[in-house]
Structures are given as structure tokens and as C-alpha cells.
Write a structure and sequence with these properties.
Strands 4-10-9-8-7-5-6 form a seven-stranded mixed sheet. A four-stranded mixed sheet has the order 1-2-3-15. It has a four-stranded antiparallel sheet with strand order 11-14-17-16, with helices on one face. It is α/β, with parallel strands linked by helices and 455 residues long. The chain has two domains: 204 residues, Alpha-Beta Complex (Aspartate Aminotransferase, domain 1); 221 residues, 3-Layer(aba) Sandwich (Aspartate Aminotransferase, domain 2). The protein contains 13 helices and 17 strands. A hairpin with a 6-residue loop joins strand 12 and strand 13. It binds pyridoxal-5'-phosphate (PLP). The site of pyridoxal-5'-phosphate (PLP) has 13 residues, from helix 6.
Length: 455
């Protein structure tokens, strides 16, 4: 009976893992990036059946790989690694393609009740939150938490500004494009961003083939005498540098994407005070799953148009998510103020700064052991929030393959490290973007594997 059971389990295992490897290989990007299948595959990997649940989510397959790797076992590390793969960790696939902020999980676990939200079935039934606000579906508690946090950190001016909430800052990006593109313009509004730019901008801009706006590429190359919207991402995704607008034309409108303007990633120099600023809990506190972003907008009419977009698009934003985000953001502000208490980690930014600093130290050490790769270096500045002097600690490592390696993504993929090629960011394929926000188990494997790669 026991033998039969083992045989049965083995069969299920082989079928399940064969399916997963098929998915992994389909994750290769084609000429254009296609996020949908890629995210879809992540979902499959995370929830892939019996073996994933029973064996710490490590999926294994007897995979017939192309060429010389035939019949070699492959292990796919998707989340936590609590037991080693049977034939050693060198066969584990490390997926660092997405900037999924799971590294903050440990901090939030020890917060427990303090950030737990309970809602009853009679609550938050209405579409409306505050009919007197331009953004009528914005929960007042979220407004207070957002403004308190910006005041505490000193990274953005909110006084006299309008706040618009979105289902992630991704929705607010689209709302801003809608609000800034004239309906009666001579043609679609040009949308540009300096390369390397966030790989989702071209996709989100052109996804619906709108007549309002079109992706016009690298801002450094934009020389038309036409109106344009320039996306300024600072610190930048993928390379982490602080940025300013580059086109400097008189027909331009700017959107500042400040998803990473938080003290664990960059020294805060002064409160940002731009016309449209986008923020998100995905990168500030690591709650990407809540899908909450906010825009700080100077002009009331623009804020109204952005609200209209979200009204037409999703008739508002989940109240449960807003309330959860409010609780978490408020806890972060409070934790900054009471951070001398010793009992547990209270200051999120202190915790996350130390974690990012430690990870960057480790990845630089790993890269310094080999001549195959290099990383950017950043100037040191003093953070007005923490008083610390440091260089950027980006959420992504913009890794360059040196020498003869022209396609860094394929090169690393052969060594079972999945990253995103520079080509998706309007840059050279000698570069890849590597997430620094994974769980410790994946990050540790990365820092062990990089120096071990020879050819
Ligand atoms: C620069 C930048 N903006 C926006 C987003 C999207 O954030 P959200 O999860 O709030 O949609 C990301 C996510 O990676 C990002 O890197």
C-alpha cells in the first residue's frame, strides 16, 4: 500500500512539474514585452498543485531541456525555501523578473494585531466615501494617513493639493494620461520617458490603441514641435537614479512617478512639489496586493478629470483596500514618531533602509567577485528624514553583463536566474533588471549564484 502511494505521488509530481516547466519556458519575452502571460505564469507557479503545497512550494521536474541539459533536474524557487532541493541548490530557478515586494513580509508579520483590519458585512456598502471631495470615492481615513505620512517623511507637499486614489498607481497613470490629453487635439498626445524607462509605460499607454495618446519613446530622442507628456520617474525604475525632465520643451506636461521616493531607497532631499505626483503602497510599504496608489495633484480640474477616468473605468476603488492601506500608512507614520521604543521593530523605514543597505552590500560583494557583471554606483547624499548619508539603494539592480555577453537575460536564464532584459526598458540587451525585493531565500541564492557563474 505504501509503495502504491509513493508511486501515485511520483506520477502526480511528474505531471504537475511537466506543466510548470512548460509555463516557465513560455515566460520568455517575445519582441514586445507582454506582462499578462508573465503575471499569469507567476500565478500558476505559486499555486501549482499538490507538490507545491506539500513541499514548501519548490516545484521539480524531470525536464527534457534543449541541448546539453537534457534530463537534468530543475527546481523552481517561487516563494520561500524551507527545504533544499534534493540534488543541490544550483538547479533551483530564481525568478527575479517582477518587483514583487515580498521582502517586507517579515516586518509586517511582527506587527500582528496593530495593522490587522476587520470589516463587517454591513460596512463599506456604498459606492461613495465623501461626496464633498473632488475624488468622491476616496476614504477620509486614507487622506489623513497619506498626508500624515508625507508630512512625517517630508517627501511631498500635500497642503492645498488634491488627492486621487487609484487601483494601484498604474490606474492613476492611465487616469493622468486621460486627463492631460485633449479630446480635440490634432492627433494623439505624445508620451515620452527617458530611457531606460519603466517597461510598463509603453504597454499601458498603447494598450487600448487610444486616439488620445500614443507612446513616443525615449524622451532624449524626442524632437518634435508637438505637445507631449513626459514621465519622470525618480528614483528611476529600472536603474535607480534620481531624475529630472529631459525634453525641456514649452509644449510639455510632466507626470512625476515617485513610487520609489521613500527613505529606504533614496535619501529624501526635499518635499517634492510637482503638478502631478504618483505614489503607491506597492513600493512604499510593500503592499502590492492591496492595489492602492494615490496621486497628489495641484490643479483641481486635472484631479476632477482623473477622478472621472476612474469613475468610468472601475466606479471607484475598493473601500476595503483603502481602509487597509490607511491603517498601514498610519502605523508607518506612528512608528516613525515612536521609533525609540525597543520592544519590536517599530520604524518601518528604519527596518527597510537597513535591509536594503544590507542587500546592496551583499549584491555588490557578489558582483565584485566576478568580472562578468557590473552595477551602477550612486553619489552619496544626506537624507533629511533619517539624517543618514548614503547613495541610492534601488528596488532593482540594473545589472550589466560585461565583455562578449550581448544578451544578458538569456545568459542568466541559462544559469537559471530569470530577470528582465534591458530591451524592455528601451535600453541595451547587455543590461537586465533584477528585483532586490524578493524574500531572503531567493536573494541569498542570487548572491551565491552570481559569483559562481563562469561562462
Ligand atoms: C515606477 C513605477 N510606477 C508604478 C508602478 C506600479 O505600481 P502599482 O502596483 O501601484 O500599480 C511600479 C511598479 O513596479 C513602478 O515601478
Amino acid at each position: 500500500m505504501a509503495d502504491y502511494y509513493v508511486l501515485f505521488l511520483k506520477n502526480v509530481l511528474v505531471v504537475s512539474l511537466a506543466m510548470n516547466m512548460g509555463l516557465i519556458w513560455r515566460m520568455r519575452y517575445e519582441d514586445e514585452e507582454n506582462l499578462t502571460p508573465s503575471w499569469g505564469n507567476m500565478l500558476h507557479l505559486h499555486g501549482s498543485g499538490l507538490y507545491a503545497q506539500k513541499n514548501s512550494r519548490i516545484q521539480e521536474e524531470e525536464e527534457e531541456e534543449e541541448e546539453a541539459h537534457a534530463s537534468k533536474k530543475t527546481h523552481i524557487l517561487t516563494t520561500t525555501l524551507s527545504s533544499a532541493a534534493p540534488d543541490g541548490l544550483e538547479s533551483v530557478v530564481i525568478n527575479l523578473d517582477h518587483g514583487d515586494p515580498t521582502m517586507y513580509e517579515e516586518f509586517w508579520k511582527q506587527k500582528g494585531e496593530e495593522t490587522t483590519v476587520v470589516t463587517s458585512s454591513w460596512q463599506h456598502i456604498s459606492y461613495f466615501s465623501d461626496v464633498n471631495n473632488v475624488c468622491w470615492f476616496l476614504e477620509p481615513g486614507l487622506v489623513s494617513a497619506i498626508t500624515a505620512l508625507h508630512r512625517t517623511v517630508g517627501n511631498a507637499v500635500t497642503e492645498g493639493r488634491h488627492i486621487v486614489v487609484g487601483t494601484g498607481s498604474s490606474q492613476l497613470y492611465q487616469a493622468a494620461l486621460y486627463a492631460l490629453s485633449p479630446v480635440d487635439g490634432p492627433g494623439p498626445m505624445n508620451v515620452v520617458s527617458a530611457a531606460p524607462f519603466y517597461s510598463s509605460y509603453p504597454l499601458m499607454t498603447d494598450y487600448l490603441k487610444s486616439e488620445l495618446h500614443k507612446w513616443a519613446g525615449d524622451a532624449y530622442k524626442f524632437n518634435k514641435e508637438e505637445p507631449y507628456i513626459e514621465l519622470v520617474t525618480s528614483p528611476n525604475n529600472p536603474d535607480g537614479f534620481t531624475r529630472q525632465d529631459v525634453v525641456k520643451g514649452d509644449k510639455g506636461i510632466l507626470i512625476h512617478d515617485l513610487a520609489y521616493y521613500w527613505p529606504q531607497y533614496t535619501p529624501i532631499l526635499s518635499p517634492a512639489d510637482y503638478d502631478i505626483m504618483l505614489f503607491t503602497v506597492s513600493k512604499s510599504t510593500g503592499h502590492a496586493g492591496s492595489r492602492i496608489g494615490w496621486a497628489v495633484v495641484k490643479d483641481r480640474e486635472i484631479a476632477k478629470k482623473m477622478t472621472t477616468f476612474i469613475e468610468i473605468n472601475t466606479i471607484g476603488v475598493s473601500k476595503e483596500s483603502q481602509i487597509r492601506a490607511a491603517k498601514i500608512l498610519q502605523a508607518v507614520s506612528d512608528g516613525c514618531i515612536h521609533h525609540n521604543r525597543k520592544e519590536a521593530e517599530t520604524n518601518f523605514f528604519d527596518y527597510s533602509y537597513k535591509l536594503m543597505a544590507e542587500r546592496w552590500k551583499r549584491i555588490r560583494e557578489a558582483v565584485n567577485k566576478t568580472t562578468l557583471f557590473s552595477l551602477p554606483s550612486f553619489p552619496q547624499e544626506t537624507c533629511s528624514f533619517s539624517g543618514r548619508t548614503f547613495g541610492q539603494l534601488p528596488a532593482f539592480a540594473w545589472l550589466k553583463c560585461e565583455g562578449e555577453i550581448d544578451d544578458c537575460e538569456s545568459f542568466l536564464r541559462r544559469h537559471k536566474v530569470i530577470t528582465r532584459s534591458g530591451k524592455h526598458f528601451g535600453a541595451s540587451m547587455k543590461y537586465v533588471r533584477v528585483s532586490m525585493l524578493s524574500r531572503e531565500s531567493e536573494f541569498k541564492l542570487l548572491t551565491e549564484r552570481l559569483p559562481a557563474i563562469k561562462t
